[in-house]
Design brief:
alpha/beta, 2 domains, eight-stranded mixed beta sheet, five-stranded parallel beta sheet, 21 strands, elongated, binds flavin mononucleotide
Length: 404
Amino acid sequence: MSNILVGVTGGIACYKAAYLVREFVRAGHNVKVMMTKNAEKFVGHTTFEALSLNKVLRDDDTPTPISHIDYALWADICIIAPATANIIGKINAGIADNELLSTVLALTCPLVLAPAMNTNMFHNIAVQENIKSLKSKGVNIIDTESGLLACQTTGEGKMAEPSQIAEKVIYILSNRKNNLQIENDLLNGINILITAGPTKEYIDPVRYITNKSSGKMGYALAEEAYKMGANITLISGEVNISSSLPDIKFVTSADDMYNLFLDNFNGADIIIMAAAVADYTPDYKHNNKIKKKDEVMELKLIKTKDILAYAGHNKTDNQVLVGFAAETDNMEEYAKDKLSKKNADIIAANDVSRKDIGFDSDNNEITLYFKNGDKRNTGKQSKSDIAKIILTESAILLNEKRNN
Ligand SMILES: Cc1cc2nc3c(=O)[nH]c(=O)nc-3n(C[C@H](O)[C@H](O)[C@H](O)COP(=O)(O)O)c2cc1C
């Protein structure tokens, strides 16, 4: 049973916060609610007092003179749902001009925001920058959904359903309790080498062979590891991701990635290979654009160097190697085969035939296959949460290796 602080701000989705509170209470948690003045224009505070059985923290009537400190210290987790564009901006800027915002500034527990707003508001560059900045500060943002909005337009910006928000909050709470110690202790100061994104294999100056990898999984791993205090070297193919990570090393081809990987391999404690490296590359790159002539054109491809196999066969006893397997069928068989052939410590396998996860999606579902025969399925979660699981498992393995 945990202490859950629910913040409610002024949007149409306020009524959904009542379902959220009810969900937490029914699950046996202690719930307190804080509301902005604007939220009270949508739903009265009495509703929340009846549901939570606790006094609501409001601007006009604070339970104690320093309620913002009391509520902040009481909370094991704080979820703001709905989170307006206004409140998102103010939290990011560190503004504390009402009770809810003052409480947020005084929190020592995880903060989760469930944004809800009109699509144009959501896509506004200022809102997007605020969300990105909050994420980089460790605030958990629950993805909005696409659908029919109160303003009768259809698009992104709809608040996630209360049941999904509740699930996420509980997950963060339990994950924090289970992993906080491990995350804090084991990754601090560890050197992690991560590869991400696709490679491009040029045929001539304007044509190339590539794949659907977006790089999101590799970047999520690098960003989470960075937040946990690890030293990150990220080698990235060309991706459409803006990241505030320092020192990203960009490459184009599989051969570039191999060479840069070799330069950084020895110093790494944990190596996570999330890049989708081309298996084959044209045997000859034309200097000039190939002209259209014959009915049939043959392209000869040759195997690229196998970076994962190199790492597996050259790693020391104190290096942990994690490979990825993106499969469309027979996932378990291929993953286990890869684990043994490449001499990896963990293979993170995902089913890329599924539309709701994998390439270019913000979510993923991964099964981790371990050298000792264990396996662990993560369930469908955001790539950031999956990244935390992979990092924690890698850190535990590293610790075991070091203690052997
Ligand atoms: C009918 C109505 C619906 C609104 N819905 C939203 C919304 O869903 N999301 C949002 O960010 N702002 C919405 N707004 C604007 C906010 O209420 C406004 O920005 C307000 O200042 C937010 O205050 P607060 O963040 O302190 O609660 C709405 C305004 C009105 C009048």
